[in-house]
Amino acid sequence: MRILSGIQPSGVLHIGNYFGMMRPAIALQAEGEALYFIANYHALTSLRDPLALRENSRRVALDFLACGLDPAKAALFLQSDVPQVTELAWILSTVAPMGLLERMHSYKDKVARGLPASVGLFSYPILMAADILIYDSDVVPVGRDQKQHVEVTRDLAIKINEVYGDILKLPEPRIHAQTQTVPGLDGQKMSKSYGNTIDIFAEEKEMRKRVMSIVTDSTPVEAPKDPAATPIVELYSLVSTPEEAAALRAAFAQGGTGYGDYKKQLFGKLWDFFGPMRRRREEILAQPDYIDEVLAKGAAKANAIAGVVMARVRGAVGL
Ligand code: ADP
Ligand code: TRP
User: Fold this and answer.
1) pLDDT in tens, 240-285
2) In this structure, are 87 and 139 located in the same domain?
């Protein structure tokens, strides 16, 4: 089984990215041949600062490794180290119906949030389809918001196969069963574009400050509290045992404790949960060449696979 996923280096990684995408991807590395990449071509649709793009890309690699990506099991590489993916994207674009892309909610959402309405942003799902199809991927672990993109990938592969014969493999999305959408500080989806994130590797003071700023209602200290009214319980459940989460729910139902105390408990759990990963991150930072070596090895592996698939595609379409 070949597993593929990507993440954009368009900002600092937050716990929504961790639970929604990174953790499931890391768990899957033991189950098959995993390929994980940093989607720097995609990030060009929103980030036009070359220095920031380069730095973020390295940082995502570092953070992914710190969170448990094992380069002996999974290849980690930069999307742009496999430039053939843009060639496949072009070929896919020649069969992609306009109407299919016009239905994508991510384009509309991003333009509504102020991203430039470029052709690249519009055809973003085609490049993503190429990312997946160029490695004959079987399984694509992503957060729920990316499911539509994996479905488009299947549609495009079916179209190519109808026209040119059976040349592309159909992938399956893998949405981690326990992780729905991780809520942000304000209860909306946690997202860097909403400014409501808790970053995985934030400094202690900053992480505490973020947790303490979780939006709550004005229920008095002594009154019972609705666990669904704030994101506290949901976030706590991600970083504690089921028994601890049940105890917190019971405490909410009982009343007598203020939101501030619950937030402190949540901070403590979060800080401890990511502790081993923070330590691993320091170890990696102490080895200056480590990240480059991992990325180079990953790129070599990815190129070998992509080369075979592209030769097949070029042959089939008549190039
Ligand atoms: P952001 O919304 O912060 O820009 P991205 O769109 O770059 O995050 O998402 C990167 C990956 O992390 C995707 O696979 C996405 O599904 C996952 N992800 C992002 N935010 C969340 C969230 N709040 N809950 C679950 N998964 C998420
Ligand atoms: N679009 C994904 C995101 O924003 C990143 C991505 C690009 C991706 N190509 C991919 C994810 C291929 C999975 C497979 O999070």
Assistant:
1) 999 999 999 999 999 999 999 999 999 999 999 999 999 999 999 9
2) yes
Q: Are residues 231 and 302 in the same domain?
A: no
Q: Which of 73, 108, 110, 269 is catalytic?
A: 110
Q: Which of 192, 225, 263, 269 is catalytic?
A: 192
pLDDT (0 to 100) of residue 179: 65
Burial 37-49 (b: 16+ CB within 10 A, else e): bbbbbbbbbbbee
Share of the chain above pLDDT 90, in %: 88
The pLDDT value given to residue 130: 98
Atom of ligand 2 nearest to the CA of 4: 14
DSSP of 22-68:
IHHHHHHTTTSEEEEEE-HHHHTTT---HHHHHHHHHHHHHHHHHTT
Number of domains in the chain: 2
The amino acid sitting at 306 is A
Tens digit of each residue's pLDDT (9 = 90 or more) over 88-114? 999 999 999 999 999 998 899 889 988
Provide the residue range defining the domain that includes 258. Answer: 202-273
Residue 178 has pLDDT above 80, yes or no: no
Instruction: Retrieve residue 251's tokens.
Output: 């405490």
293 and 258 belong to one structural domain: no
| pLDDT for position 142 | 86
- Asked if the structure places residue 78 within a domain, the reply is yes
Residue whose CA is closest, atom 18 of ligand 1?
Answer: 17
Position 197 in a domain: no
For residues 251 and 298, state if they share a domain: no
Residue 140 in contact with ligand 2 by CB distance below 6 A: yes
pLDDT score, position 91: 98
CA 292 to ligand 1 center in whole angstroms: 25
**Residue 154 Cα distances to 71, 148, 151, 236, 307, angstroms:** 28, 10, 5, 36, 21
Same domain, 33 and 150: yes
Instruction: Identify whether residues 38 and 117 lie together within a single domain.
Output: yes
| Cβ of 16 below 6 Å from ligand 2 | no
